[in-house]
Amino acid sequence: MSSDRKLWGSITMYLAVVALTMFLLPAVSIFLEHAANPGTALMLLAGRWFVFWGVGVRLALAGLRQVFQPAFTAKEIFHMTSEEALPLVRELGVANVASGVVGLLSIAFPSFVLPVAISAGIFYGVAGIRHLAERGRLRNETIAMVSDLFMAAILAVYVASCWTGR
User: Fold this and answer.
1) CA 13, 19, 22, 26 torsion: positive or negative?
2) Measured at the alpha carbon of residue 115, what is the angle toward residues 40 and 132, in degrees to the nearest 5?
3) Are 130 and 66 in contact (CB under 8 A)?
4) Measuring CA to CA, which residue among 3, 21, 5, 33 is closest to residue 96?
5) What is the mean pLDDT of each run of 10 residues along the chain (166 residues)?
6) What angle do CA 70, 72, 74 make, to 5 degrees?
7) What are phi and psi of 158, to 5 degrees?
8) In this structure, are residues 55 and 114 in contact, taking their beta carbons and an 8 Å threshold?
9) CA distances from 6 to 16, 76, 122 (A)
10) Contact between 16 and 131 (Cβ < 8 Å)
11) What would you report as the CA-atom Rg of the chain, rounded to the nearest whole angstrom?
């Protein structure tokens, strides 16, 4: 396979995973659970499903890729070409897997949802702002920026709703 086709496949797969885990699957899950239990508050469902999909699945998958294929994140997100960056990307991957696992467990342990939303909201917010400040963003960094800021906003609204009781 040519390197251009391989790169295009990686970019396409990255966009698909981000779109599915951070937008489509949470929305479908919220819709289906609300249809089955119309009395359940939408904010509760948003917290549950965005934490599960957008934090749990998304960060677990990203973390696994960073652990086993650190060059993708190093090159396509951070524009690093040196092999020296790979151990750092792998460590980021382990942290993402750890956060992702707790996000996945939140479906079985609902008391995990709020703490995961707080920690992941901070992570996504800082990452999104960092991408926003970057000049000359390429496609994957723009995808990361938009999805990070979107997820930070969703999680912030959920956390605020927990504190205000709405």
Assistant:
1) negative
2) 100
3) no
4) 21
5) 54 88 97 97 97 98 93 82 90 96 98 98 96 85 92 98 84
6) 70
7) -60, -50
8) no
9) 15, 13, 33
10) no
11) 16
DSSP string, the chain: --HHHHHHHHHHHHHHHHHIIIIIHHHHHHHHHHHH-TTS-HHHHHHHHIIIIIIIIHHHHHHHHHHH-HHHIIIIIT---SGGGHHHHHHHHHHHHHHHHHHHHTTT-GGGHHHHHHHHHHHHHHHHHHHHH-TT--HHHHHHHHHHHHHHHHHHHHHHHHHHT-
The reported pTM is: 0.88
Residues in the chain: 166
Q: What pLDDT, on a 0 to 100 scale, did the predictor assign at position 37?
A: 96
Please give the angle made by the CA atoms of 85, 90 and 91, to the nearest 5 degrees: 100
Residue 65 structure tokens = 């890729």
Q: Residues near 21 by Cβ (< 8 Å), separated by ≥ 6?
A: 53, 54, 57, 58, 61
Q: Please identify which residue in the block is written with the tokens 């092999």.
A: 83
* Six token digits for residue 147: 């999805």
